[in-house]
Hints:
Elements: H1 2-23, E1 27-30, E2 52-58, H2 63-74, E3 87-92, H3 103-112, H4 133-138, E4 143-151, H5 155-158, H6 170-178, E5 184-188, E6 202-205, H7 208-211, E7 221-225, H8 240-254, E8 259-265, H9 268-273, H10 277-300, E9 304-309, E10 317-320, E11 330-335, E12 345-350, E13 359-362, H11 363-373
Parallel strand pairs: 2-8, 2-9, 3-13, 4-5, 4-8, 5-7, 6-7
Antiparallel strand pairs: 1-11, 3-12, 9-12, 10-11
Amino acid sequence: MKKYYQFRVFALIFLSLKIFANDTEILEISMGNTKSLETKILDFDFDLKPKNIIFLIGDGTGFNAIHLARLHKGGPSHKLNIDNLPYVGIVNNHSVDNIYTDSAAAGTAFATGYKTNNKMLSITKDNRKLETITETLTKSGYIFGLVATSSITHATPAAFYSHVDSRYKEKIIADQLVNSDFSIALGGGEKYFKIKNLPNNISLIKNKEDLLSDKSLEFDRILGLFSNGAIYRSSNLPTQLEMTKFAVNFLSLKSKNGFFLMSEGSQIDWGGHANDADYMLREFYDFDQTIGYAIDYVNKNKDTLLVITTDHATGGLVIHSQDDKNEEKKILYSWATKKHNITNVGVYAYGPGAHLFSGTMDNTDIYKKMLEALNK
Length: 376
């Protein structure tokens, strides 16, 4: 009887694995042949301290998402902009209440150096307010800006200025942004704001044409709201690259003591949640172009530290081996989940202080290392 029971258990396990394997759809995407762009990378003395920080977050961008983009763009030897960063580290990213993190808890770790529960923004699990890096630096005369391809009230950007027990309270988060000391904030989410009640020193921009106008650089503070929700791909709407370029130019012009800019490619994550590789890759390429621009900015402005990371990976992306050698130009891949991955992610850095970001670290250490680089 015992042997019969054991046989049934093993049979059920085998059938479960077989069913799971059969249900895993193997998908195809073309292998690219684009040549890698040559990128100039400078050496920076370890004793140099940056004046400015550009902090780029590719939400949901795990290692396999980057590698799929690499293969799709130019094949296994292709170098993306992110591949040129000279200092690379590994980041642990759990939250207080779970071994996986959401964007709110991860954003809080980046913004405050503390872990919290998922869904909470820059408060502790017992609702104690945590000072954000933007609040700390503002006291030292810095100015700061925010960019996102989601609503500007979404979890990651919100962690840098908001203190609330739920990321979904976006109207409250919008009020907190307006009452913060931001110099420029660009994204979507107009429906969450009381537009008629904006302070007189905040200029509202609602279209791409105004964003790209030199006249906008004359404004004191800018709130750019380009859609009611997220900023989806359209020729009439700005990309992460375009918003980041404008924000950097604006902050450079207005800053006397230094600036901090957080720019998020928000929808890479959404492509992972949807198990949509085309969506994910479109968003990642915008993010990688933004990285290329930021590298060039650091080369021209050697007092700027560039830090790049992600909050978590999304979708459980798996890249498969090719059984047929004649199909070298096809990439085989599959998705394991529509949720976040419980995996480490990367951090990449360039410029003065970049050496601090090599090795294995917690996501809270990124906050600490940014302040250490600034000698704060």
